[in-house]
Amino acid sequence: MKKLSKLEAVFWSIALPGFSQLLAGQLWKGTLFVVLEFIINVYSHFNSAIMYSFMGEIDKAVHVLNYQWLMFYPCLYMFAMWDAYRSAMPEKEELSFLPFVFSAYFVTVGLMYSTKLKLFGVFFGPVFLPMIFVIPGVVTGLLIRWLILKWRGPTIQS
């Protein structure tokens, strides 16, 4: 089994959920993540929405999507990323899942509001708004992690 760095693991998961697991030799898990990503992507029409969004046709991106399928995507995406990160992190690292979990929450909320919400008068739509919501998700997760670790104090590893 190949040991990836945390950065390498996260970047391969950003490219496609499951790639880090496949590179690390976790064939069943990696294949499962790739297949799930493919199913959700196809049934939600996410690639079409990405294409329209990058071409500046945000209204078409909104209308092409199947939101019932796309709502699964943030949690799958962030879980696969967390799993890749977890495989590469030091054993003593604690609560590092929190930025991933809160990113999944925030991206899901961003997706729900993506058909209506404008930020600073700009309509970002269902691709870019959820991406923007990753930032407060990561910050919230890191803040909560820091608060818990500070409140709890150092733990003794046996």
Describe this structure in words.
The chain is mostly helical and 158 residues long. Helices cover 72% and strands 3% of the residues. The protein has a two-stranded antiparallel ribbon with strand order 1-2. Strand 1 and strand 2 form a beta hairpin. The longest helix is centred in the last third of the chain and has 28 residues. The mean pLDDT is 93.
Summary, kept brief:
The protein is 72% helix and 3% strand.
Biggest sheet descriptor? 2 strands, antiparallel
**What is the helix content?**
over 70%
Computed Rg: 17 Å
Instruction: Extract low-pLDDT stretches.
Output: none
Described by the principal axes of the CA atoms, the overall outline is flat
Query: Helix/strand/pairing class, anyone?
Result: mainly alpha
- Overall strand count: 2
Into which percentage range does the β-strand content fall? under 5%
What pattern of helices and strands is seen along the backbone? HHHHHHHHEEH
Specify the number of helices: 9
